[in-house]
């Protein structure tokens, strides 16, 4: 199946001052206003997604996390009982 190159349209009402600012910024970078706005919106969207989805840890926290993965603590008695009940419930006879 051939790939389709579809486009969507985005419209926004902005103040004349913001329009002038965007136009000036685009001209300074030698871009069209559309290209400038699309690039800026794409960068902002990527940053927002990264902030929501990527967990950043300090070096100490990274070491603590790695140590917990390498040497996990023994399960508490309540967790052991929960595992036993789970195994019992899943037993198909």
UniProtKB/TrEMBL annotation:
Its keywords, alphabetically, are: Toxin-antitoxin system
Keyword Cytoplasm present in the record's keywords: the answer is no
Q: Which InterPro entries match?
A: Ribbon_hlx_hlx, TacA_1-like
Say yes or no: keyword Cytoplasm present: no
* Coiled-coil regions, chain positions: none
The UniProt family comment states:
Belongs to the TacA antitoxin family.
Protein's name according to its UniProt entry: Uncharacterized conserved protein, DUF1778 family
State the taxonomy lineage: Bacteria, Pseudomonadati, Pseudomonadota, Betaproteobacteria, Burkholderiales
